[in-house]
Amino acid sequence: MQLETFTNSDTRLKALQALQAKLTSDLVHAARGLSAERRRPAHPMAGAVAAQLDDLNLLSAGFEIHFEHRSHPDGLHIDSESEPIAFDESGIDVAEFLISPNIGQPLRPLAEIASEGERSRVLLALKVVLAKVDETPTLIFDEIDVGVGSRTGSLVGQKLSALSSAHQVLCVTHLAPVAAFADTHFVVAKSSVGDTSLVRVGPVKGRQAIEELAAMSGASTTAGQRVARDLVSAANGWKDSHSSS
């Protein structure tokens, strides 16, 4: 058996080389196809995200999805003229979100220049745009309104409410205009007993919910509760007007 292996080693080597060539060709074909499928919807998706950002008070913000390839000595030769390209299980593309928050500013990487509030709104805009194809049943937003002021808070609340038509949405927020759009409110309270910390979560509704919204606004007064009622009334009015759309 060993003699046969040594005798036919050249034949086996050629067979393995042929198999390697075929697998490489199949891999290049798959990588090209995946790259094309990924790039095709990128431009309309970026336009849709920009439109959502406009709704979220990032007026006229520019947004694009940029793709590039990175060379690697052990990568794939996509064509005869290019250097070998790095690849992994996700393909050959390296994608990056670019944003121009203000008119006249060039597009730059979101991860480098965006504030916390801008990042929060981009994340929410992406979730809204992808809501119809996202099969995740429950979406959890932990302080999606970080860096967002009260004026934009109601806009964030509207987007979250719209998302709830196709998903269960759980949102942790400290902003009353956002919380006003919730269908169900829970209060999270932390306390300590001796050396132990306790966290309690309980539902609130009716007058209790109004009092909590007023407290979130920093005004636990009659006037503050009146403002909280106005927030809830406005939120309910928006939800009623959009329930059939």
Question: If you had to describe this structure to a student in words, what would you say it looks like?
Answer:
- This protein is α+β, with helices and mostly antiparallel strands and 245 residues long.
- Helix content is 49%, strand content 20%.
- It has nine helices and eight strands.
- It has helices at 2-7, 9-39, 42-55, 110-113, 116-130, 150-163, 176-179, 207-216, 222-242; strands at 62-68, 71-76, 94-100, 108-109, 138-142, 168-172, 185-193, 196-204.
- Strands 1-3-4 form a three-stranded antiparallel sheet. A two-stranded parallel sheet has the order 5-6. A two-stranded antiparallel ribbon has the order 7-8.
- α3 (42-55) packs across α5.
- The longest helix has 31 residues, at 9-39.
- The N and C termini lie far apart (74 Å).
- The mean pLDDT is 89.
**Span between termini:** 74 Å
Task: Catalogue the unreliable spans.
Answer: none
Number of contiguous helices: 9
Strand content: 15-25%
Mean model confidence by pLDDT = 89
Topology pattern, helix = H, strand = E = HHHEEEEHHEHEHEEHH
State the total count of DSSP E strands: 8
Give the strand order, joined by hyphens, for the main sheet.
1-3-4
Helicity level: 40-55%
* Gyration radius, in Å: 27 Å
Overall outline: elongated
The main sheet comes to: 3 strands, antiparallel
Structural class: alpha+beta
